Structures are given as structure tokens and as C-alpha cells.
Amino acid sequence: MAIFGKTDPPDPSAGQERAGAASSSPATVIGAKARFVGEITGDEDILIHGRFEGNIEVNRSVTVAPSGEIKGDIHGRSVVVGGRVHGQIRADERAELLASASVQGNVSAPKVVIAEGAQLQGNVAMSAGDSPAAPVQKQVEEH
Known about the structure:
Blueprint: E1 27-30, E2 35-37, E3 40-42, E4 45-48, E5 51-53, E6 56-58, E7 61-64, E8 69-71, E9 74-81, E10 84-86, E11 89-97, E12 102-104, E13 107-108, E14 111-114, E15 119-121, E16 124-125
Parallel strand pairs: 1-4, 2-5, 3-6, 4-7, 5-8, 6-9, 7-9, 8-10, 9-11, 10-12, 11-13, 11-14, 12-15, 13-16
């Protein structure tokens, strides 16, 4: 919408697919040739194409692109891994390991998707929210 004769700048995402982004909200991006050491916290999507050392704790989605590598723990609402992660992954809603993923660490989420070809050295824990999983009881049929 133009205001006072000014035209809006073109939308940089118009006509382009945002690789790995779960929504159209702003995202923090670490580029493919970047290396970052520290900690990320916040309330926006995170997209890692490069190398990151440290922990990530956000209320949104975390995406590790096939070129991305993380050495540290990840916690987000949803986590999608296409690259390498050396650390624990905890998602509040969903964790997904793409075919190109390589994870050394445990994965914990209510919903976990592991694509054929993904590599995982660790355990997977699935439960509904924060409550522990209910034990499975075997039904015995009487004749």
C-alpha cells in the first residue's frame, strides 16, 4: 500500500520459497559460510546454514539446513534437521530428521519423524506434552 506517494519496497520473499522456514515470520539466519559461537534465545524462527557452537532455546522453530552443523543442545517448538547435530534435541511439538540428517544425541518430542537415510546415534523419547508416557497394558482374551 502506498502512503503519501511512496511505493512499498518489493517483498523479497515474493515468488521465492524460503527453504526450511516453517512460517512467514522473521527468522534469524546463520549463513552457509558463517561460524557462530555463543547462545541463541528468543521468540523467532532460527535457520542454520553454517556452523553454530552453543545452545539454542527458542519458542519457535529451529531448522538446520543440509549444510548446517550444530554442536550444542536445541530446544524449540519444532525442530527440523537436515544437517549435522552433536547434542540433545528437544521439541515441544515435533522433531523431524530429514534423509540428509546426522544426529549424535537424544531426540525428545511428542511427534518424531525420521526419514529413511537419516543417521541417529542416540535415543528417541515420545510423550504427550510434559506427562510421562503411560505404560502399555496387554489385553488377555478369555475363551
